[in-house]
Specification:
Layout (H helix, E strand, L loop, with lengths): L17 H12 L3 H7 L7 H6 L7 H11 L3 H6 L17 H11 L4 H8 L3 H9 L6 H11 L3 H6 L9 H6 L18
Helix pairs in contact: 7-8, 7-9
């Protein structure tokens, strides 16, 4: 079940915006829940309802099927991350999560136990994700991505930048406005 709020002082996980993004995209596309379920080739007719009502945390492949049916990037639908997804994939992008997790963990010189502890996950959960024995939920992937310092959209689907820019860096970037004649420092009174 998706939490409605988190502890004050902590930023909300990115996946918590999925219900609103899904509902908005579904309504924009003009689909009812059953039509979207059929277009996404999902067996359970209550999946979309459960996601929109925050009763479920979906697996990566479920989000990817819904995103493809809606013509969206799965990284955007799951985590709200814009990316440059090009072309139609021949296989599910989410199937590469285990390889990306393993490669990144090795590159960061971390043990699986250290990653699982830093992510706040059980060791078997992290291990089964890396081995490919199970398809993780978007909450699990976001926790692993945060522990490794990479973008959850990239870890889950191989889309977007490997590392997300720091929020403070984004906010503090000066805007590149063209100086006008009346806006130059020479014309301003001291």
């Amino acid at each position: 079940m998706l939490a409605r709020t988190v502890v004050r002082g902590r930023k909300n996980p990115l996946y918590m915006g999925l219900p609103a993004r899904l509902k908005k995209a579904r309504l924009t596309a003009g689909y009812d829940r059953q039509t979207l379920t059929l277009k996404a080739s999902l067996a359970d007719g209550s999946v979309v309802l459960g996601l929109e009502q925050r009763r479920r945390v979906p697996r990566l492949d479920t989000v990817e099927r819904l995103a493809d049916a809606l013509g969206l990037s799965p990284a955007f639908l799951a985590f709200g991350i814009d990316d440059a997804a090009g072309g139609i994939p021949t296989a599910l992008r989410s199937e590469g999560v285990s390889t990306r997790l393993h490669t990144t963990r090795i590159a960061k010189d971390m043990t699986m136990r250290a990653v699982s502890e830093k992510a706040g996950l059980s060791h078997p959960t992290a291990r089964s994700t890396e081995s490919g024995a199970s398809m993780p939920t978007i909450a699990t992937v976001e926790a692993l991505a945060n522990a490794l310092g990479v973008s959850p959209g990239w870890l889950a689907y191989g889309l977007g930048p490997v590392e997300l820019p720091n929020r403070r860096a984004i906010r503090s970037k000066p805007t590149q406005a063209a100086p006008s004649e009346s806006n130059t420092s020479a014309d301003r009174p001291l």
